[in-house]
Design a protein that fits this description.
This protein has 2 domains: 60 residues; 124 residues. Strands 1-2-3-4-5-6-7 form a 7-stranded antiparallel beta sheet, with helices on both faces. Strand 6 and strand 7 form a beta hairpin. The longest helix is centred in the N-terminal third of the chain and has 58 residues. The chain has 191 residues and is α+β, with helices and mostly antiparallel strands. Helices cover 42% and strands 33% of the residues. Keywords: Signal.
Length: 191
Amino acid sequence: MRALAYIPLAIAVLAAACQGNNNNQQTTQTDSTALDTGLVTQVKVDTIQSIRDNYERIHAITDWDKIDSAEVLGESTEGGIAYFYYKNNIMEKMDIKYYGEGGYTNDYYYFKDNQVSFVLEELYRYNAHMYAPEFDYSKTEKAEEFRFYYFDGKFVKGLPEQADPKWQAELADRAEVLVQQKEKISKLKRY
């Protein structure tokens, strides 16, 4: 009989132990999720930092082995020019300047493992239409600047950032156009 008296106590202890185990599993899952989110954030931060490090490495090169150029026709109203920078027979950088009647655009491409890693796009506006009598090139002003980050050839971030999903979609579309432009302009290299 005495043994039967311990059965409710054993069931209560067992139930409490199972409940405690269940709580520990939930806590572990929540902590694991937090770690995964932190890990994803850290990977993104590390990715952007590695892109910036590559940019700094290329930007610091002053003794290029070869610099080639080509005219860029048909891509803008007034044409343009592309410069291709090589170190150790690898194209590390490409600069493209597109001229228009109201301004010009500079696109600076930086590569890693033969893929686009970073693009800096600067848009400049003339003080007046280039054929107007008041046109003065020295009064040209920078209108906008955009930065596009790519990892393994895929767009990962654009600046300036905005919360508007439409803006983000436009940046992603522009990032894709820049890669297509790079492919087209790269074919102009003279070697």
